[in-house]
Design brief:
single chain; mainly beta; 5-stranded antiparallel β-sheet; 1 helix; 2% helix; binds beta-L-arabinofuranose
Length: 344
């Protein structure tokens, strides 16, 4: 079943997908929705998918996005406002291409948009852009964050006011190319630097942010995801190992680290007692959606928890996605109910 997307499975079984939720945006393609409550509204920071005419490959070259739009809603699933282009690759001095999944944070009166892009050497870095409004436009810093690497930044504000950034994605996200601490420019395939199946999987990275929110305030650390016995999840365990799309939320004093398993297409989660982990694998939050990628965010708004995610209902194409939202429920024992976004 590895690598078999929901579409492929359904085509084989001769089924037609019935989606439980509507696309939130229908006039442009949107993906990787990072949702936050700012100024008593839901703000969504998604990728803006376009068809750049690139062939599909395992490096993700077909995800060749060039700008970001910001969206807001007064209620989850209610009327959505497109605030227009918030940042373009042309306005980021160091970036060349592929504006992948972003996130945003507020500190004081300023808003920060964090985003991955390939630099002029083809290496993914994380950039920051600043605005005095949650909807932008955002002004990019001249350089990427020092020491930044890979993709999918997610910023979590802890109750004590510290901010932590989680990053990483393997294969096209290049995290495997940093295993020696220096970027390996000589890789030919996305799998070249992967650990053997019986070695621990590559972990995402975390660092506290600096006070000015523009840099890491400490060295990036690798996060451990372990099973209930405390053993690391192994690289060959594609149903459970970290692939990309990190997100952290806190519920009843516990830190919930959720992520995509990539080629097995789940959003899994693991819990811990510190923003640095270790995190103990618990199960899946979201079953595979239509399309290869699965990428989400989790947010509480007016007493209800939501998961924002994407699928490919509008286009049927993996690189042209549309964002959606669903309610999410924590059970009394702290586990999360698994969500199916398509009906059987
Ligand atoms: O949108 C481009 C990439 O696809 C994201 O960075 C990944 O998380 C995956 O959703």
């Amino acid at each position: 079943q590895h690598g078999e997307t929901l579409q492929v499975k359904e085509e084989k079984e001769g089924k037609k997908t019935k989606f439980r939720n509507q696309p939130l945006v229908t006039d442009i393609y949107t993906a990787d929705p990072s949702a936050h409550v700012f100024e008593e509204k839901l703000y969504i920071y998604p990728s803006h998918d376009i068809d750049a005419g690139k062939e599909e490959d395992d490096f993700g070259g077909h995800f060749d996005m060039r700008d970001y739009h910001v969206f807001s809603m007064d209620s989850a699933g209610g009327k959505i406002t497109d605030h227009g282009v918030a940042l373009s690759v042309e306005d980021v001095p160091w970036a060349e291409r592929q504006l992948w999944a972003p996130d945003a944070a507020r500190k004081g009166d300023s808003y920060y948009l964090y985003f991955p892009a390939k630099d002029k050497e083809g290496v993914f870095r994380i950039g920051v852009a600043v605005s005095d409004s949650p909807s932008g436009p955002f002004k990019a810093e001249n350089e990427p964050m020092k020491g930044s690497l890979s993709i999918d930044p997610a910023v979590f504000r802890d109750d004590d006011g510290e901010y932590y950034m989680y990053i990483g994605g393997i294969w096209g996200g290049q995290l495997q190319n940093w295993r020696t601490g220096k970027y390996d420019h000589d890789t030919k395939t996305p799998y070249d630097n992967e650990p053997a199946d019986d070695e621990p999987a590559i972990g995402p990275r975390v660092a506290r942010l600096s006070n000015d929110m523009l840099q890491f305030g400490e060295e990036l650390k690798e996060i451990e995801i372990v099973d209930k016995k405390g053993d690391p999840i192994l690289a060959g365990d594609h149903d459970r190992r970290f692939f990309e799309a990190a997100w952290v939320h806190k519920y009843n004093g516990k830190y919930y680290f959720s992520y995509s398993t990539g080629d097995t297409h789940f959003i899994a989660y693991a819990t811990g007692d510190s923003p640095y982990g270790p995190f103990v694998y618990q199960g899946n939050i979201l079953n595979p959606v239509e399309g290869w990628t699965n990428h989400h965010s989790i947010v509480e708004f007016k007493g209800q928890w939501y998961i924002f995610y994407h699928d490919t209902e509008l286009s049927g194409k993996t690189h042209l996605r549309n964002i959606k939202v669903s309610k999410l429920r924590h059970r009394e024992d702290g586990t999360i109910e698994t969500i199916n976004t398509v009906t059987e």
